[in-house]
Design goal:
The protein has 445 residues and is α+β, with helices and mostly antiparallel strands. It has 11 helices and 14 strands. It is rod-shaped and about 160 Å long.
Length: 445
């Protein structure tokens, strides 16, 4: 539910942020348009008043003694609507019908101030036009008009613009939300698909199919995550298989000793030997677990150590510990020191020696020597050896040169050898030939 809310929140933030920006622009446009309309209407009202005042001024005659006479020859009653004619002394010569004393005083005061316009409340506008003679004001015409039609137009325009703006914002929001939803749907589908693949089939990938650049980048990122998850799963699976492979032999020994103890009574010496064999096997299992866990925790490198090479080789050649059916001889300087912990070294070399013993005809020889700042351990047997193909794939997990040879192994021993040797900073190579030969290069201690 929380993840769903997060996706909805992202979609809402994108759509609402864009809607707010659009709403601000619409608001600015609406305010600007209404302000412009108000100015245009005010100008029109002034033009009407000015035209009427100029027309009335044409009917005014001023005598030399300042007497103002209105020429009504044209009998134009339209010019007399809302019009005052005032002489130079401030006396009203003509007043419109229905005027009040207060309105007359406003007209007289305005006429005395020259050419001016004044609004009386929100409904009436007065405009004065002075009539001059020789630079002196000898009379004035004051006209008036109702502002109600103009205000009505402004209110209608304001309400219309508000309605259009709201409708536009709603439509824009819905369109943006739909587009954002449509744009994010592939992302949601890809993440859902990646989650399904990670649970069901980690081998599937989005690949390099045609898609927008952003989705292509997301696909690449998800593929990398799936690759890493698949690698982790393979590592865990290989670790489990390798651990099972390493524990199989000591567990079998313990089980065999226990079965013999149950099957028949033994004297004190035989019982002590059985207990010693079980003790060696359990200690071997403890060593295997510690080594494998250490290698798993340090996938990139094995913690350096310091071991006399002969100490590990003696363990590998011990017929009681390793169940060796052919003799294993060790050749080399007993004082050579390798830079790897003894348990790691035994675990790394054990599969090589076990394979050599299994395929050998009569003997196995382990040679150790120094070369170019490294130690080289060569395991030789007089068995049939490996072909070029077998030598190239000998260390691949699960590979077996002859699956029908009757051996129950899973082909993981040499893969573990390579992983531990590489983690220790060394290298391992299988050499093709008439007899078995594997060379392990290890760092000096």
């Amino acid at each position: 539910m929380r993840a769903r809310a997060a996706r909805t929140s992202l979609r809402s933030r994108l759509s609402w942020s864009a809607t707010v920006v659009v709403a601000l622009w619409v608001l600015l446009l609406a305010v600007g348009a209404n302000e412009l309309l108000a100015r245009v209407l005010a100008g029109q009202a002034d033009d009407v008043l000015q035209a009427r005042a100029e027309a009335v001024a044409q009917t005014v005659d001023v005598a030399a003694d300042g007497t103002v006479t209105v020429l009504d020859g044209r009998d134009d009653q339209a010019l007399d609507v809302g019009t005052w004619i005032i002489d130079g002394a401030g006396r009203i010569v003509e007043t419109p019908s229905g005027s009040t004393a207060a309105l007359d005083r406003q007209a007289v005061d305005l006429a005395a101030q020259g050419a001016r316009t004044v609004d009386l409340g929100d409904d009436l506008r007065l405009r004065a036009l002075p009539i001059t003679d020789g630079g002196q004001q000898v009379a004035a015409v004051v006209t008036s008009t109702s502002l109600s039609p103009y205000r009505q137009v402004e209110r209608t325009a304001l309400l219309g613009s508000v309605g259009v703006a709201l409708l536009l914002v709603v439509v824009v929001h819905l369109v943006l939300r739909a587009n954002v939803t449509r744009a994010l749907r592939p992302v949601q589908d890809m993440t859902t698909q990646a989650g399904r693949w990670s649970a069901d089939d980690t081998d599937l990938r989005f690949g390099d199919g045609p898609r927008p650049a952003e989705l292509a980048e997301l696909a690449g990122t998800l593929d990398q995550l799936l690759d890493r998850q698949a690698a982790v799963l393979r590592h865990e699976q290989r670790f489990t298989e390798e651990l099972s492979h390493e524990l199989r032999t000591p567990l079998a020994r313990v089980q065999a000793e226990i079965d013999l103890l149950r099957a028949q009574p033994r004297d004190a010496r035989a019982l002590a030997d059985a207990h010693a064999a079980i003790d060696r096997s359990t200690r071997a299992m403890a060593s295997i677990l510690e080594t494998m866990l250490s290698a798993a925790r340090s996938a990139e490198a094995v913690t350096p150590g310091r071991t006399r090479l002969v100490d590990a080789l003696v363990v590998l050649a011990d017929p009681d510990a390793q169940d060796v059916r052919v003799p294993v001889t060790i050749v080399g300087d007993p004082d050579l020191v390798v830079g790897v912990d003894v348990d790691v070294l035994v675990r790394a070399l054990s599969p090589v020696v076990d394979n050599a013993v299994r395929f050998a005809t009569s003997h196995v020889r382990i040679q150790a020597g120094a070369s170019s700042g490294h130690l080289v351990v060569t395991v030789l047997d007089d068995g049939p050896g490996m072909t070029e193909q077998s030598a190239d794939r000998a260390f691949d997990p699960g590979y077996r040169g002859d699956p029908d040879d009757g051996h129950t192994g899973a082909g993981l021993g040499l893969a573990l050898t390579r992983r531990l040797v590489l983690a220790a900073g060394g290298a391992v190579t299988a050499v093709a030939g008439d007899h078995g030969r594997i060379e392990i290069v290890l760092p000096r201690g």
